[in-house]
């Protein structure tokens, strides 16, 4: 009898202890009209900061400025294409060390809103999908339940999500929510089987305690296709929009859960050749105040945009093909270099009326380096350096092969053939698409005859043919520039290079040698300056139209700075082997490239290099100059051309314009 009572007491004690332990365990769930964090109502004001768009030495500074503004959460995508650049070759180091990124966020008191894609848009190449998917199957139905696609998605999710499982809130980490796909209602597939597969993969790999959500534009048809059973439906809109009206639409699909604007736009995307987008800070804080009054959570997209280093930038497809600028400044509250703006201070002041700000003064802009002008020396043409840029030699084929088939993700491929036979003067050179398939030239082709430039073909300008004179046995070279795969809409299966036939007066040219150029890429774990191994100094001034230029400069104090490339035409810049990205000042609006302090070192042996594609401003060595300045120039004038005004009218309501693209 006494033994039975003792056993009952023991069992009761164990049950109560277990219940107490469970009640003390971290929990984050969806409640009625609010989130519940550890059982208490919770809402967030978050900021998006993409880890790959900032040098990892800047991550803590970003988080510190977010907290100083009163934010309590950070949101980021995971860019699959950077982490798995080739099949089953993974990279989680340096700028891609996402575990460190999330732990630092937690250190600064920020919870994490995770957006693992697999498609993310984010204005990156192919919307974050790896280019090699198109090599595996060019007719693969992306973002669908097509098994030829989902086999790779499943493999990726089964790799990356377990890697982060211990960082979920239930396990003591900062991750509170995980998004299913991304703005899927804007994609016509509307494939519920695919969406539910992603949901199952997240739950299997991260546990049942994670809160799932979806993000779509605040339109009925978008949320209808984008919603997933068991996931919180949220929507996105920008400053100046009707918050009450948008949330009223959201309530049709999110009946009693918390209201969330998952992407609240304080600015907008910029494209080469289009006016720089700005949004008034008054509109930003007014819409924030409206959302707060409606008891909503929201995520400022982005709080700091950062930079599309290397070949990261994607492109949009509106009335024309629109490559995204190297800067991802976005007119965000924190500039590309991370400096607070008037918009930042207005947001901080507003949030300070909602809850206490952290102690300490408001952040101020950091010092910038003005390292002055640097004289560059000509380091040879593309052809002079071809062996160094492609040590393996060419890949040969009867007809041109795409970047994907060549296993070359980004940048440039030189296509070469020797012309046989005699053609008219002038002959018509044409790169046509494949009937019933397209594409043709993607995206920009510089044409050479016997290594002399004779013209440019352009996808943006829809120039796919040109006249030229070429004699028998002369060499035809076409340097094709991949300007970024489409990142949004139905055109994301965006093959690059020459995809089709090259003809002269309708005669198909064959016997091609192709040179994928091995330029420093992003992310590069061990960057080094380009190796210009020329036996003779090239001194013919007339041939200095395009090619490589190099110069050394001194740094007495390592600071962030900006590379000014006035007078140069179009190309890529490298600092100590780090690819800063594309410059194109004649197209605008961006005129300077951001140089993080981490890319520099004290001393006289810093190296700046340009790969100028079209026209250097050099008549002599001493006229080949770039300059390191303290103030960026992002909003210069842009060319006038048909269709520009129509786009700019739509750009005044950019979050609507985006939904119409593709």
UniProtKB/TrEMBL annotation:
The protein in question is named: Beta-galactosidase
Q: What class of enzyme is it?
A: hydrolase
Kindly state which reaction or reactions the protein catalyses: Hydrolysis of terminal non-reducing beta-D-galactose residues in beta-D-galactosides
Domain called Beta-galactosidase galactose-binding: residue spans: 548-604
* PROSITE patterns for this protein: GLYCOSYL_HYDROL_F35
Q: Pfam families from the xrefs?
A: BetaGal_ABD_1 (PF21317), BetaGal_gal-bd (PF21467), Glyco_hydro_35 (PF01301)
Active site residues per record = 183 (proton donor), 263 (nucleophile)
Keyword set, alphabetical order: Glycoprotein, Glycosidase, Hydrolase, Signal
Q: Which GO terms describe its molecular function?
A: beta-galactosidase activity
Q: Which residue range or ranges hold the Glycoside hydrolase 35 catalytic domain?
A: 34-353
Q: Which species is this record about? A: Hypsibius exemplaris
Q: Where is the Beta-galactosidase 1-like first all-beta domain?
A: 400-518
The GO annotation for biological process reads: carbohydrate metabolic process
SUPFAM superfamilies named in the record: (Trans)glycosidases, Galactose-binding domain-like
Query: What Enzyme Commission number(s) appear in the record?
Result: 3.2.1.23
């Amino acid at each position: 009898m006494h033994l039975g009572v003792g056993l009952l007491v023991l069992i009761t004690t164990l049950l109560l202890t277990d219940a107490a332990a469970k009640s003390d365990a971290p929990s984050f769930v969806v409640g009625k009209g609010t989130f519940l964090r550890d059982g208490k109502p919770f809402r967030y004001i978050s900021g998006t900061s993409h880890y790959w768009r900032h040098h990892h030495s800047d991550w803590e500074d970003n988080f510190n400025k977010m907290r100083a503004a009163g934010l309590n959460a950070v949101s980021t995508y995971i860019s699959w294409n950077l982490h798995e650049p080739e099949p089953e070759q993974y990279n989680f180091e340096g700028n891609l060390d996402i575990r460190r990124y999330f732990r630092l966020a937690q250190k600064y008191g920020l919870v994490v809103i995770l957006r693992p894609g697999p498609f993310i848009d984010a204005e990156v190449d192919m919307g974050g999908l790896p280019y090699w998917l198109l090599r595996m199957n060019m007719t693969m139905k992306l973002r669908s339940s097509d098994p030829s696609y989902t086999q790779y998605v499943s493999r990726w999710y089964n790799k990356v999500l377990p890697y982060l499982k211990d960082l979920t809130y239930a396990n003591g980490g900062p991750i509170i929510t995980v998004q299913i796909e991304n703005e899927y209602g804007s994609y016509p597939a509307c494939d519920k089987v695919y969406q539910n597969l992603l949901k199952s993969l997240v739950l299997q790999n991260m546990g049942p305690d994670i809160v799932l959500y979806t993000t779509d534009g605040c339109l009925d048809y978008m949320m209808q296709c984008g919603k997933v059973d068991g996931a919180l439906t949220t929507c996105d809109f920008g400053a100046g929009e009707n918050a009450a009206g948008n949330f009223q639409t959201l309530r049709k699909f999110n009946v009693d859960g918390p209201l969330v604007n998952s992407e609240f736009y304080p600015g907008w995307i910029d494209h080469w050749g289009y006016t720089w987008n700005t949004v008034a800070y008054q509109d930003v804080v007014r819409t924030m105040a409206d959302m707060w009054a409606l008891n909503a959570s929201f995520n400022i997209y982005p709080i700091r945009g950062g930079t599309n280093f290397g070949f990261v930038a994607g492109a949009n497809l509106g009335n024309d093909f629109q490559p995204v600028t190297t800067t991802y400044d976005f007119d965000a509250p924190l500039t590309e270099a991370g400096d607070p703006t008037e918009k930042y201070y207005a947001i901080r002041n507003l949030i300070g009326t909602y809850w206490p700000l952290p102690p300490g003064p408001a952040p101020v802009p950091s010092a910038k380096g003005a390292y002055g002008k640097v004289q560059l020396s000509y380091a040879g043409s593309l052809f002079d350096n071809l062996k160094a840029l492609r040590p393996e030699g060419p890949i040969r084929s009867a007809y041109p092969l795409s970047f994907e088939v060549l296993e070359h993700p980004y940048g440039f491929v030189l296509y070469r053939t020797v012309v046989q036979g005699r053609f008219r003067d002038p002959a018509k050179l044409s790169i046509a698409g494949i009937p019933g398939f397209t594409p043709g030239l993607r995206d920009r082709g510089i044409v050479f005859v016997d290594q002399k430039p004779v013209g440019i073909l352009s996808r943006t300008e829809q120039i796919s043919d040109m006249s030229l004179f070429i004699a028998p046995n002369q060499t035809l070279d076409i340097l094709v520039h991949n300007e970024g795969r489409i990142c949004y809409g139905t055109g994301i299966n965006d093959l690059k290079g020459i995809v089709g036939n090259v003809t002269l007066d309708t005669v198909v040219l064959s016997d091609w040698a192709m040179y994928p150029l091995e330029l420093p890429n992003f992310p590069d774990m061990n960057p080094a300056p380009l190796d210009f191994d020329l036996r003779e100094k090239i001194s013919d001034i007339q041939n200095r139209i395009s090619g490589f230029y190099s110069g050394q400069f001194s740094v007495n104090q390592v600071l962030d700075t900006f590379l000014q490339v006035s007078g140069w035409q179009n190309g890529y810049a490298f600092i100590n082997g780090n690819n800063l990205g594309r410059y194109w000042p004649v197209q605008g609006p961006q005129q300077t490239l951001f140089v993080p302090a981490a890319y520099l070192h004290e001393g006289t042996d810093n190296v700046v290099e340009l790969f100028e594609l079209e026209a250097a401003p050099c008549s002599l060595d001493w006229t080949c100059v770039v300059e390191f300045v303290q103030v960026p120039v992002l909003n210069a004038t842009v060319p006038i051309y048909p269709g520009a005004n129509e786009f700019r009218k739509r750009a005044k309501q950019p979050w609507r314009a985006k939904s119409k693209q593709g």
